[in-house]
Amino acid sequence: TRSTRPQRLLRAVQQKAIKGDPQSVISAIDYFCRHSEWAMNVGDEKGSILDSVVCEVCPTTALELGTYCGYSTVRIARLLPPGTKLITLEFNPAFAAVARQVIEYAGLQNKVCLVEGASGDLIPKMCQMFGIKTFDFVFIDHWKDRYLPDIKLLEECQLLRKGSILLADNVICPGTPEYLEYVRNSPHYESKYFKSHLEYTKVEDGLEKSVFLG
Ligand SMILES: CCCNc1ncnc2c1ncn2[C@@H]1O[C@H](/C=C/CNC(=O)c2cc(-c3ccc(F)cc3)cc(O)c2O)[C@@H](O)[C@H]1O
Ligand SMILES: [Mg+2]
Fold first, then answer.
1. Nearest bound ligand to CA 203?
2. Of the residues 30, 44, 64, 141, which is catalytic?
3. Phi, psi (rounded to 5 degrees) for 108
4. Closest atom of ligand 1 relative to the 199 alpha carbon
5. Residue 83 pLDDT more than 90?
6. Distance between CA 134 and CA 57 in Å, rounded?
7. Separation of CA 56 from chain center
8. What does 43-93 look like in DSSP terms, one character per residue?
9. Are the C-beta atoms of residues 164 and 209 closer than 8 Å to each other?
10. pTM for this structure?
11. ipTM given for this complex
């Protein structure tokens, strides 16, 4: 049977990147998506905004919703100091299998914990599974209609603290109108929009950075 796009993306990493070199894995995926097949990775332009926010926050605990092929997982994990963990949630087993291999190729398996399952089921288990009290940083890039319910769940589970940073992809394209309305109007958040472009295209998109105020 035909390979899937994530499998072809993984093959491009294995053929073009250097094992243990996260930057070469990132470049191989960006090259594949620009010159072979578009894929819904955050990409290089929004990715450098992601990098700067991660470096500014220096999180000790980080969560990613929607691993897909592990591109943003590698971008985030490569910037984390030793001893910190990025927990990434992915409910599609085929995507999770590809992501594990991408993360391992980058040599970042010790900084990442990929948990297979739905965010709605797993978020309430973060404390019992990992002893996590609160997350310093959350990157949101899963199904767009799940952004809002999942941050409300993070609030309910008391997994956010004063100063926790949420960074959401695709707030323009495909768009997350309910999420934007909430974080921009809620007294519990201070929000800022980072204008950019949809990965590998000239279409406008951007990232919304929201600080939880408690
Ligand atoms: C139970 C569902 C909610 N909980 C969930 N828990 C764990 N993982 C979940 C997940 N939802 C979705 N996922 C996973 O996240 C990923 C989903 C990402 C959805 N992303 C998009 O749709 C997207 C789409 C575009 C896009 C933009 C323009 C266009 F023309 C076509 C596509 C661009 C992006 O950057 C995107 O992120 C998959 O790997 C999926 O299996
Ligand atoms: Mg996205």
1. 1
2. 141
3. -110, 15
4. 35
5. no
6. 14
7. 16
8. HHHHHHHHHHHHHHH--SEEEEE--TTSHHHHHHHTTSPTT-EEEEEE--H
9. no
10. 0.99
11. 0.99
